[in-house]
Specification:
heterodimer, A: 142 residues, alpha+beta, 3 helices, 6 strands, elongated, B: 160 residues
Chain lengths: 142, 160
């Protein structure tokens, strides 16, 4: 009964880890690895698109990490491409003319230690806790 | 008894989430120390330790979450333990916030000093304080480890 009880608690624990606690842990790691950055840049747009260079690396080089893009000229600016090596962000949906673009995005932290350990954090946390749960359950004497 | 184990696991997971939620504040406080402009060569060792201080403190607190998960099966985890982690994290943040002032005071002391001995003596103060602040999370983890070990021993003795 006791072993069966441990297995039952282990299953619920693992379910909680990958279910209810998955997103808060992912969000927490992201919060640690990134900083919410706002960059303002003046550009001259000839057609409806332009390219700007971000000051910091875009988190995971994903366009989804762009929080918001606004312009002081009429238009619906949206990012449609990002080049990781040059930090170039391509933006379209702009009105023509001189304008100021404000880009808010999640930038990769410039903390060198976090740049090294950051990509492995989620793996360590999830597999570490899952491993500890399994170890605790299998080595429990009660 | 099984419900206590489940509660212990939940406390462990909550500890990880809370630590991660607080971690940006610890990182920001540490960045303020790194960018204070007072990390001169007189501040012995500070330029080196400040680069990995915040991640070390946060990883120390995260390890507590893992210990609580193990402790759950030994019957040694409660909400009190989780609150102690939060309390430790707050102390680390406050301690790191004080560090910029301590660096300022040390610079003033070094400037007021007249001998090389005084420069070394005053220059090592920030390192001691910084290591004490960062080491606090490691000490808490060690205490947690001892509690888990203690629970294990007492469980084994109870069965003998």
């Amino acid at each position: 009964m006791n072993k069966a009880g441990n297995v039952f608690i282990l299953i619920i624990g693992l379910f909680l880890l990958v279910g209810a606690f998955r997103q808060p842990i992912i969000d927490g790691v992201k919060g640690w690895r990134t900083s919410d950055t706002t960059q303002s840049q003046s550009v001259l747009v000839a057609a409806d698109n332009t390219t700007i260079t971000l000051s910091y690396d875009l988190y995971q080089a994903e366009l989804a990490e762009i929080i918001d893009i606004t312009s002081n000229v009429t238009g619906s600016p949206a990012a449609y491409g990002y080049t990781e090596s040059t930090r170039s962000l391509a933006i379209n949906g702009l009105g023509a003319g001189q304008q100021t673009l404000v880009v808010e995005y999640y930038a990769e932290t410039d903390d060198t230690v976090m740049q090294v350990i950051g990509p492995f954090l989620l793996f360590f946390i999830f597999f570490g806790i899952a491993g500890l749960m399994i170890w605790g359950a299998t080595h429990s004497k009660r | 008894m099984q419900i206590n184990k489940l509660l212990g696991v939940i406390v462990g997971l909550l500890t990880v989430v809370v630590t991660l939620a607080i971690s940006p504040s610890i990182a920001t406080a540490n960045t303020a120390v790194a960018d204070s402009g007072n990390l001169t060569s007189d501040m012995i060792g500070m330029a080196v330790v400040v680069t990995f201080g915040a991640p070390l403190a946060i990883l120390g607190l995260l390890a507590m979450g893992g210990l609580f998960v193990v402790g759950a099966w030994k019957g040694g985890t409660s909400m009190k333990e989780m609150l102690s982690v939060i309390f430790t994290a707050v102390i680390v943040i406050v301690g790191l916030s004080f560090m910029t002032s301590i660096l300022d005071y040390s610079v003033a002391l070094i400037a007021a000093g007249t001998s090389a001995f005084e420069t070394i003596l005053y220059g090592i103060i920030p390192l001691f304080v910084y290591l004490a602040v960062i080491g606090l999370s490691g000490w808490q983890t060690y205490q947690g480890y001892r509690r888990v070990r203690g629970s294990k021993k007492s469980t084994s003795m109870g069965l003998a």
